Structures are given as structure tokens and as C-alpha cells.
Amino acid sequence: MLRIGHVQLKTNLLLAPIAGYCDLAFRLVVRSVPSCAGHGTLGLACTDLLCPQAVLNENQKSLWLAATHPDDQPICMQLYGADGAIMAQAARWAQAHGATTIDINMGCPVDKVTKKNGGSTLLCDPANTVKLAKQVVEAVSVPVTAKIRLGWDDQQLITDTLPPALADVGIAAVTVHGRTTEQKFRGSASLDGIARVVEAMKRRHDIPVIGNGDIKTPQDAKRMIDATGCDGVMIGRGALGQPWLFRDTAYYLATGELPPPYPRIERARLVVQHFENLLSMRDERVALNTIKRRMSWYSPHLQPWPGLRRGVQKIGSPNEFRDFLSAGIERMRECCAVASS
């Protein structure tokens, strides 16, 4: 179990705010996967990162990125920016629009975010970043968290200093991605770096540290927890093709054993559900283009299915997609019947 401020989560597993991927349509798919033997699945999901001025202006794209649903709970809304007053206003907007927790993005290494002095640029000015965090914390009554990296580069590490300072002003949890900004997503996440943040927080505060980076299997999650002492893990890209990863990981952390594999037919049905979610929220063109891109993530976990990725790219309408997936599911069912006879 993991507690963030006054919010008690059902598991210590979080879905990362991956820009362009972890939208409402996908989050609902992740949440629909049943637990194995009652050991839980996802504890907390995050929205895409949100521009504070854009949500305050309520432009169409930002409203889509911030969209949630009664079945999409608990939900963290993540904000990025460097203006404390505007960030505080946006935090109030997020709380009013259903945020269970609010996260300040201090870790995004992407140029379009850092060039606006947001994301991991905040790591370069710890004093002002702490002031910004204080403004956001004081603006809302829900817990406020921060997602950081180890530092801008190896010469500017903040693992021992910034996290405790953020806790001093009321940050309720810190998620640390085990790379520097300079690394972006290259190399391997540093478990030693995450462990340094855990140790620094233990010396001064009793708030949770969540590890992030390179979690692709349940074993990866346990390895990170065992090596760093972190209180939970945030899973990003590893879940994009296997939304059941939270189910498998929760079971593994509780029992030390892997659960029975999530059935291939059920995996295919999740893809159908993802598409139907998209279709109910976006227009047909966007829904089709999105699911075609996502098949590169799903495909490895649906094999054997010869021609799956090529076949999907030729589809031109929602009904064609439904028929294509239905035929594949029927073939799976027939194979299962033969195997069990």
C-alpha cells in the first residue's frame, strides 16, 4: 500500500504521464484489467503533462489532455511551468476538475518544455523551484507531488538536496526518474541515484519516494524496490503494450511468483476496448490513426498473429477495424479449443 498525503492508494503502482500516450482512453483500458487473486492492479494514474496557462484558458487540446471520468479515479493531474502564481491558479483549476493529487513536472527533458523554463529546467534553480512548490501546495487542499530527475547532468545532481527541501514546503511525495536531463532516455536508469533520494528523504522526512525508469516486467519493479528502498514504482513505456503489467506486478510483489499469463484473447479485447474508447472521445480519423500507431506496442504481446501490424495499417474505417480484430479473436478461440481437446 502507498499513502500520498491523506490519499490512500490500493497499490504502490503508478502509471506515468507519458505525453501523447497515457490519455483517458488508455487509462480506462488499464483500469479495466481485473486483479489476479485480489492482489490489486493500478494504484494511481497521471494525466498527460498540462500547460497551466492553457488549462486556465480552457483551450480544446488542454481540456482533452485533462479529461477524466468517474471510472478514472484516483487521478493525478500533472502541471509544468516556472511561474508560481500561474501554476497555483492551474492547481486550483485541476482540483476543481477532479484531481485527486497534483504533480509538478520537474523532470521532462523535452526541448519544447525546457525552453519554456519548465520540466527539468527547474532542477537548475532549486531555490526558486522550492518557492514555486510552496505556492502550489498552499493553493490547494489535495496532496501535491513532484516528479524529478537526478539532476541536469552528472555535475549538477540534486538527489541529496532538492527532494528534502521540497518536503519542507509540503510536497507529499517525490517520484524520481533515475536519469539526468542530459541523458534523456539513453542508457539505464540509475538505481543508485534513486537510492540516494530515498536516503536523503529518510534523514529528514517520512514521505514516500517513487522510483521510475526501465520498468518493463514485474521483476524490474521488485528489483528497483529492493535495490533502492523506494515506496512504489511508476511504470511508463513498459505498460503501453501490456496494460495488464500492473496486474502482474501487484501479484508478483505480493507473492513472489508470476501470475498465470493474462489470456491472449483478453489482450486482444483490450485493444478493441482501447479503440472503442478513442472512438467515443475523438473523431474517426484520430481514433484510427491512434490505434494504428499503438499496434506497434500491442503486437508483440498478441503473437502468434501473422500480418497483424501490416493488416491494421490497411484499415480505413471503424467497422473494418472491428471486423479485423474480431476475426483474429475468433482464430485465437479456435486455437484454444484445439489445444484443449
Verbal overview:
With 341 residues, this protein is α/β, with parallel strands linked by helices. It has two domains: 2-255, Aldolase class I (TIM Barrel, Alpha-Beta Barrel); 264-340, Non-ribosomal Peptide Synthetase Peptidyl Carrier Protein, Chain A (Orthogonal Bundle). The chain is built from 14 helices and ten strands. It has an eight-stranded parallel barrel, surrounded by six helices.
Summed up:
46% of the residues lie in helices and 13% in strands. The chain is of the alpha/beta class.
Residues in β-strands, percent: 5-15%
Q: What structural class do the secondary elements suggest?
A: alpha/beta
Largest beta sheet, briefly?
8 strands, parallel, barrel
| Total of domains | 2
Helical fraction: 40-55%
Q: What's the number of helices?
A: 14
Number of strands: 10
First CA to last CA: what distance? 42 Å
Quaternary structure state of the chains depicted: single chain
In spatial order, strands of the major sheet run 3-4-5-6-7-8-9-10
Helix-strand string: EEEHEHHEHEHHEHEHEHEHHHHH
**Principal-axis shape:** globular
Q: Report the CATH superfamily of the largest domain.
A: Aldolase class I
* CATH fold call of the largest domain: TIM Barrel
Determine the mean pLDDT: 94
**Which consecutive residue ranges, at least 5 long each, have pLDDT under 50?**
none
User: Roughly how many Å is the radius of gyration?
Assistant: 20 Å
Q: What CATH architecture of the largest domain would you give?
A: Alpha-Beta Barrel
Which CATH class of the largest domain applies here? Alpha Beta
